[in-house]
Amino acid sequence: MLLNTLAALCLAVLPAAPGSPALTPATIDGYIAQYREATGLPGVAVTVTKGKEVIHAAGYGRTATGDPVTADTPMALASVSKSFTSLAVLQLVEKGQVKLDKPVHGYLPEFQLADPRAAGITVRQLLDQTSGMADSAFREKSLPQPDSLQDAVARLRDARLATAPGTAYSYHNTNYQVAARLVEVVSGEPFAAYLKAHVFTPLGLRHSSTIDTDRDLPGSARGHLYILGQAIAVPEPPGFGNGSGGVLSSASDMARWLIAQNNGILSPASVKEMRTPSAQNPDYALGWELDKTARGTPVLRHGGDLFTSTAQQLLIPGSGYGVAVMANTGMAFADSAALMDGLVALIEGRQPDAPSSPFLATDLVFALLTLATVALAARGVARSRRWAARRTGRQRWRLLPYLLPIVLCTAIAPVFRVLARGRDIMWIQVVYLYPTFMIWLVTAAAAGLAVVVARLWRGAAQ
């Protein structure tokens, strides 16, 4: 009943909002236009609210399929979805069906790990990311991906914990997939149906939904990579995201969502729980991060990263402002975060940082290296007969350096895990993060193999 009343209030204020003297729809439009012109950002959806008013909700540019981005275009929220999952769990807490500090296993018997310590993981520890589950102990991205929340929990049966529950913070998507499955089992509804019935519909979120995998992304929510400064539409790499990153939403819906955060979406006690961080990480609460603006103003926020799109949401409790941004370029380029920072600067009366071009000198370097590698490989293959004539069998060890790019190519994911302090990744995802480097590396691996095969073949023919 409370949510239905809130939805009516939200809908009543959506059509018009005066904005503040310092921040108007025209100001926002001008800033977004400047940013897109400087960066080539293909498409973005933006909303800014204050109190119960919508200052602006709009779409700019085009989707990956070429359609205009409007205020009602569903786009990927990625990990911003975690605040929706947290809300769903806290709704069950308010109904007395779940207690935050009780073990998950009591509500979700199928939640079983190979580590006996997992029996002590509480619902709160899932939401504040202190369960002890971590990429370093369970490689959620590089393992075969599940098709459902039930499968996502089932694949944990061979997993172990990185730390004892409640002793350390580790951002791990599986925490929220387990939480979403808990919502399914306790409520008796599929997670997508639960969100629609208890969150989306009551709040008037007409263009929002949640999906399971990359295969379920609609055209409007697909994204791009920048290659040599140009945005290229590409499919999202394989991945499962429901509960942790599966929500799709629009600028108009996110306006309602942000307004609802300060207007009775939960009881004051539950809102306090949602915004209270753990002792292990004072900056992460239950699906929300605690942060400060450049001016030192306390904010609540959460970002979301896919490999082809990103999203951000932010609340400034002191002034009542809310901001959401969904950009259809990937995590390597951080367009939504840059736009969020710029909009916050406008709210605070500051000048946003000048946007920078996505064209990187390193991209040009690797493009030139790729061309040079192809040319050198062609030369090496063409001269293979001459090389074989000058070398005896004992000297063929000199071909080994040509195979080094193959070794690096096959080991790139483990190398990344080391450099990223244990964060998991699959091979194709490295390609999305560093496209020009990986194009060169794959080319170098193929070129080296071609030269080795040609020279050995010529040597055998001598």
UniProtKB/TrEMBL annotation:
Pfam families linked: Beta-lactamase (PF00144)
InterPro entries assigned to the protein according to its UniProt record, in alphabetical order: AmpC-like, Beta-lactam-related
Domain of life of the organism encoding this protein: Bacteria
Segment forming the signal sequence: 1-22
GO molecular function: hydrolase activity
Keywords for the protein's UniProt record, in alphabetical order: Hydrolase, Membrane, Signal, Transmembrane, Transmembrane helix
Enzyme class, first EC level, given as a word: hydrolase
Transmembrane residue ranges: 359-378, 399-420, 432-457
Enzyme Commission number(s) of this protein: 3.-.-.-
The keyword RNA-binding appears for this protein: no
UniProt domain Beta-lactamase-related: residue ranges: 29-330
The protein's name in its UniProt record: Serine hydrolase domain-containing protein
Lineage: Bacteria, Bacillati, Actinomycetota, Actinomycetes, Streptosporangiales
